[in-house]
UniProtKB/TrEMBL annotation:
Residues 13-375 form the AMP-dependent synthetase/ligase domain. Gene3D superfamilies: 3.30.300.30, N-terminal domain of ligase-like (3.40.50.12780). InterPro entries: AMP-bd_C (IPR025110), AMP-bd_C_sf (IPR045851), AMP-binding_CS (IPR020845), AMP-dep_synth/lig_dom (IPR000873), ANL_N_sf (IPR042099), ATP-dep_AMP-bd_enzyme (IPR050237). SUPFAM superfamilies: Acetyl-CoA synthetase-like (SSF56801). Belongs to the ATP-dependent AMP-binding enzyme family. Residues 426-501 form the AMP-binding enzyme C-terminal domain. Keywords: Ligase. This is Long-chain fatty acid--CoA ligase. PANTHER family: LONG-CHAIN-FATTY-ACID--COA LIGASE (PTHR43767), NONRIBOSOMAL PEPTIDE SYNTHASE PES1 (EUROFUNG)-RELATED (PTHR43767:SF1). GO terms for molecular function: acid-thiol ligase activity.
């Protein structure tokens, strides 16, 4: 006698495909995909990936812009029990090679309009599969052909772990495995995750979330996966455009949208007649983060959209640390909010000793999802992760008497430009490969639109010459466009202390002394 089918767990793709197969889940421009179609496509892709040797525990690299194929791919990977590695579509071929090699990824799916620069990677790295979504190339099979596979029926075992590459102070990218919603989650983790999904942050079947954030770090994938779990509609914006955000909100009655400050600045800069053209009353929640939010911008957002803005602070290594609720945005001006449940924050001095309330020091945080090591790396040492599980964020800040966190400076050199993390050591290492460069320093300087932009300073070797244009062109050969310096000064000598240590604070000081924050 045949056993009855096992019911799909609530919140899985299979569950929603059964409950409402004809309801629309994905919207990208004029294309719409229903829950039933999404599950069918994911089953087909999972079957094709398995036929190429991809199995549970493997890592599949995905390099795409915001598009409807991404939810199909992540759902297929979840059905296999594999992990998804988000690869920034702006990385150069050499940067892509490093990430694929370092992670041990076995497959690559990419939507590059020209795959020729990546054509050598599948063979040289021994990938089990390389697929091109939009363009053919030697070594890449058409993504569409994978969807022609006769499917078997798969059941998701849970969400696919997401692998995100982040650089540290060494400038070498390192992988972080984000696998928060797992079967063995304990009560602290469950309470932490529940807090992420309550109140103004909650998603339900009436939610329509607009996704504009890229899909190679936590925010964009998080919005999509939260939407899939809740049975919501997901509207995808392949390329950010300020007016298009308003247009999509009105057309699809969007309830939730998250952006970085640069995106909001571009919306605020639209002419008044454009801003008044669109009905945005459907919005219930706006999220902002990834970079400091200037108070005038925050005040404009609240005036235009209403008191629905929420701000968050966290990192790839720790997950979210604090949140500032909509009703506290102007009450606790300049704050990044209160720690989430089961998150603990300490402010410490340079020797690691805890500081009293109100004093500024380095931020250490313990969360239920803090990493213990980077992918394929040894466990973190006590200078980064102490014996009590506190992670050294590299940011400077203080706690007020109510427990609200204020971020005032950055101990690390990281630059945040348009919400994207840029690591000076990586840029400096490229500049130092130029035969005329003796030493280099890279800092972030204030930028009205992006928050910060990249500026480089170079010392030239005695007897050598190099122009600014030549050095900028040198950077362009090995760095993704967003990492390249927007300005470069050639200096006689970089500032150093008596021990010869480079004093970047002295380089920053002329640019930041009139700013309200040093980050």
């Amino acid at each position: 006698m045949e056993s009855p089918p096992v019911a799909a767990p609530a919140g899985t793709l299979e569950h929603w495909a059964k409950v409402k197969p004809d309801a629309v889940v994905l919207i990208e421009r004029e294309r719409q995909i229903t829950w039933g179609e999404l599950n069918e496509l994911a089953d087909r892709l999972a079957t094709a990936l398995a036929a190429h040797g991809v199995s549970a525990g493997d890592i599949v690299a995905v390099r795409t812009r915001v598009r409807s194929e991404w939810p199909v791919i992540v759902s297929a990977i979840a059905k296999l029990g594999a992990s998804l590695l988000g690869v920034n579509f702006r990385l150069t071929p050499s940067e892509v090679r490093f990430v694929l090699e370092d992670s041990g990824a076995v497959a690559l799916i990419a939507d590059d309009a020209d795959l020729a620069p990546l054509a050598a990677l599948p063979g040289e790295l021994g990938l089990k599969l390389a697929a091109g979504i939009d363009a053919p190339a030697p070594g890449f099979v058409p993504y569409a052909s994978l969807l022609q596979t006769a499917p078997r029926r798969w059941q998701s075992g849970g969400e696919a772990p997401l692998v995100v590459y982040t650089s540290g102070t060494t400038g070498k990218p390192k992988g972080v495995v984000m696998h928060h919603r797992r079967a063995d989650a304990g009560p602290e983790l469950l309470a932490y995750l529940a807090d992420m999904s309550k109140g103004y942050r909650s998603y339900d079947e009436d939610t329509a979330v607009l996704v504009s954030m890229p899909l190679h770090h936590g925010s964009g994938p998080g919005q999509i996966r939260n939407g899939l779990r809740a049975g919501a509609r997901i509207v995808l914006q392949p390329r950010f455009d300020a007016e298009d955000v308003l247009r999509l909100v009105e057309r699809h009655r969007v309830t939730h949208w998250t952006g970085v400050p640069t995106m909001y600045k571009r919306i605020a800069a639209l002419p008044a007649e454009v801003l008044g053209r669109y009905d945005v009353s459907s919005l219930r929640s706006l999220g902002i983060g990834a970079a400091p939010v200037p108070m005038p911008l925050k005040q404009w957002i609240i005036r235009h959209f209403g008191p629905i803005l929420a701000e968050g602070y966290g990192s790839t290594e720790t997950g979210m640390i604090t949140a500032l609720a909509p009703d506290m945005q102007l009450v606790k001006a300049g704050s990044s909010g209160l720690p989430h449940p089961h998150v603990h924050v300490e402010i410490r001095d340079g020797d690691g000793a805890a500081l009293p309330t109100g004093e500024m020091g380095e931020i250490w945080a313990r969360t239920p999802v803090v990493i213990r090591q980077y992918l394929n790396r040894p466990p973190l040492g006590p200078d980064v992760l102490d014996e009590r599980g506190y992670f050294r964020t590299g940011d400077m800040g203080r706690l007020d008497e109510d427990g609200y966190l204020y971020i005032t400076d950055r101990a690390k050199d990281m630059i945040i430009s348009g919400g994207v993390n840029i690591y000076p050591a990586e840029i400096e290492s490229v500049l130092l490969t130029h035969p005329a460069v003796q030493d280099a320093a890279v800092i972030g300087v204030p930028d009205a639109e992006f928050g910060e932009s990249v500026k480089a300073f170079c010392e030239i070797k005695p007897g050598h010459t190099a122009s600014v244009a030549e050095l900028l062109a040198h950077c362009a050969t090995d760095l993704a466009s967003y990492k390249r310096p927007r300005a470069l000064d050639i200096v006689e000598e970089l500032p150093r202390n008596a021990m010869g240590k480079l004093l970047k604070r002295e380089l920053r000081q002329p640019y930041w002394q009139t700013q309200e924050r040093n980050v």
